Amino acid sequence: MVYRSPCNSIGKLARLALGPKVAARIGPGEVKSRAYGVPIEVKPPTDRVVSEVLAGLVERVTFHNAESGFCVLRAKARGHRDLVTVIGHAAVISAGEWITATGEWVNDRNHGQQFKARFLRTVPPSSADGIEKYLSSGMIRGGGPACAKKLVRAFGENVFDVIEATPDRLREVDGIGPVRAASILAAWAEQKAVREIMVFLHSHGVGTARAVRIYKTYGSDAIQVMTENPYRLARDIRGIGFKTADAIAMKLGIEKTAIVRIRAGISYALNEAMDDGHCGLPTAELGPLAEKLLEVPQELIRTALDLELQDGAVIADRVAETECISRPVIGR
After folding, report:
1. What is the pLDDT averaged over residues 23-36?
2. In the sheet that 280-282 helps form, which strands lie side by side, from edge to edge?
3. To the nearest 10°, the Cα dihedral for 244, 249, 255, 258?
4. Do 208 and 193 share a structural domain?
5. Is 107 found in the same domain as 74?
6. pTM (2 decimals)?
7. Which of 46-50, 116-120, 265-269 has the highest mean pLDDT?
8. pLDDT digits over 192-234, tens only?
9. How open is the CA angle 174-179-185, to the nearest 5 degrees?
10. 269 to each of 118, 281, 305, how far by Cα in Å?
11. What DSSP line would sit under 286-310, residue for residue?
12. Residues spanned by the domain of 226
């Protein structure tokens, strides 16, 4: 009998089940039957995490870090009688918003069952109650509980339509003059821009935690930066490397042979060398390494390298008789 497993403990269990005279280990993770010689393969169980989708209304924002986007929410979710705890990341979040979260349930030692969201999408509330909660939360500057109640009383579930299409009507509400109306409009436009950016990032496979970091780094220019040169992510944002930026670029439709990709890949190849303790690489070695990492022809690598040298992104040097390429030294 042959039992294959990467786990030594499973092999011990097999011996106990078969007996020492029946089973003997003949290699890593293998047990062979001396008595029968009939090969049987038993696969150990897998611990695959199954993603779920949770949708509901945010009743309370327990915690939100404006810098990292990390948040702890209490939500009234579909299919759940009691409020559930959702943890994830959001650039902005407020009570009253409708969330759709993709992730899995976890049991926290201190806080009990929570839904851990890898993707967290928010949309403005559509019910009068949700709209009032949203406007009361301070999410819209110039709002507040009293102002929110007046807006909902005046326009019902059409508050956001009025803000979007006929903003002059805001001044029909008692207590809302030109200044407060302008403040509400500006805040709404900002929230709309944030949502559009997050939807764009999510649609290209960027998880919410990374999406928040991208938004915090580039602000309203995030979509433009991502469209023109997603490889800037690897240079500008800690925790996002070339491989992650490259995966995003592929989803954006950037070809493997694009010069912008190869230029970023040269820096990636040099960084790989630096991680191995080198200050740079001989030019003769950099080309083949970049070719292997990027899977593109040498002539394209040469063109991209010339552009990197012209811009000062890398520097050429000579060590003894060997021509080398390295990254610029900060402060040099």
Report:
1. 41
2. 280-282, 322-326, 315-319
3. -90
4. no
5. yes
6. 0.66
7. 116-120
8. 888 888 889 888 888 888 889 999 899 889 999 988 999 999 8
9. 90
10. 30, 9, 12
11. HHHHHHHHH---HHHHHHHHHHHHH
12. 204-251
Q: What's the rounded Cα separation, in Å, for the pair 327 and 332?
A: 11
What integer is the mean pLDDT of 13-27? 44
Tokens 């790989």, residue?
272
Model pLDDT for residues 130-149, shown as the tens digit of each residue:
888 888 877 666 567 888 89
Angle ∠(282,288,293) on CA atoms, nearest 5: 115
Do residue 218 and residue 274 come from a single domain?
A: no
Residue 93 included in any domain: yes
| CATH code where residue 322 lies | 1.10.10.2220
What residues have CB less than 8 Å from 58, skipping those under 6 apart?
Answer: 73, 74, 75, 93, 94, 95, 96, 97, 98, 99, 122
Q: Assess if residue 300 is contained within a domain.
A: yes
Cα Dmax for the chain:
92
Kindly provide the residue ranges of all beta strands, DSSP E only, lying in 190-295, ordered along the sequence.
280-282
Q: Is 324 helix (H, G, I), strand (E, B) or coil?
A: strand
* 6 occurs within a structural domain: yes
Task: Please give the pLDDT value at position 190.
Answer: 84
